[in-house]
Amino acid sequence: MSEMVTKPLIGITVGDPVGIGPEVVAKTLVEPEIYTYCRPVVIGRSELLRREAHNLRLGLSIQSVTGDIQSVQPSSHVTFVWETGPENVLDLAVGELNPDAGRAAYAYAVEAAQLALDHKVDALATAPMNKTALSRAGIEDIGHLEIYTRMSGVNDTATMLAVGPYRVVHLSTHVPLGRAAEQVTFDRVLARLRLTHKQFHEWGLDGPKIGVAALNPHGGDDGLIGNEEATAISPAIEEAQKEGIDAHGPFPVDSMFPQARDGRWDAILVHYHDQGHIPIKMHDFESSVSLNLGMPFTRTSVDHGTAFDIAGQGIADPTGMIAAVKLAARLVSGQGFVT
């Protein structure tokens, strides 16, 4: 069996067809380095990639998969597309919010998940969808995590951001800030610590050292400005330690990122969206990658949106898409994170 065949097969979705997803995917596919990690196959419509390859003068040949998807042999000059979704996507105005584009992106995401669940691809790397487009299309799932949680039939999932030395797991993400604080409970913190520990083990990274952030400024200052640290977070950490999980905290989050930079933490558990997203994106927004924990398959994603304002202009940066594909391949190959 050739070296290429033994490399993991990574399914790449193009995301919202009128956003920058098709562009960053096309630019990713002509990067020779990608093929040292994996065999990428695109899940969507070949006409989208042909348009991008033509407009960007990439010199990329686009072929539809015929037969067994696992036998494809792509290169930086030839890529393969698993055809799925509506056929009229080229009729949609690029850069304009459209529910039909939301339906197409949803179709790509669903087909990709089914391929992963059927073990026909080894992992997924997804380009961005638009939550408003999904909603206006009448789709209740607001994003990839919700779609894949439902399709997988799992109950406990989480989002993690990764870039450089930082891996940040979120207790909550897309909920109002007041509700996020209400969700900081003993049971939820303990469950998230268990999930993080288990997921790292499944990626071949045993015994991760997990730092747990405080919710309140200064860690609550002994209850003067909040008591969630004493009533929920600390007891959950203590219970996790009894179970053999290497968890520590809670610590003020502003001190934890310098510690992670210096190698103290394999992962940091934060409690709400901006507590984790801001430092990650300040460090290196372009290269940051989003991952799902708790799924029966590995899925990475870019950490940016559909960027309708620059779609079709040829100026979208593919760095995040390249990083997402490489990380998906590294994790399913047991190579771990790049620090």
Describe the structure.
Helices cover 40% and strands 17% of the residues. The protein has a twelve-stranded mixed sheet, with helices on both faces. The model has no long low-confidence stretch (mean pLDDT 93). It is an alpha/beta fold and 339 residues long. It folds into two domains: 1-154 and 295-339, Isopropylmalate Dehydrogenase (3-Layer(aba) Sandwich); 155-294, Isopropylmalate Dehydrogenase (3-Layer(aba) Sandwich), CATH 3.40.718.10. Helix 2 (21-29) packs across helix 4 (46-56). The chain has helices at residues 3-6, 21-29, 34-37, 46-56, 99-117, 131-136, 144-152, 177-182, 186-202, 228-242, 253-261, 273-284, 319-332, and strands at 9-13, 39-44, 61-64, 78-83, 123-126, 158-163, 166-170, 210-213, 247-251, 267-270, 289-293, 298-302.
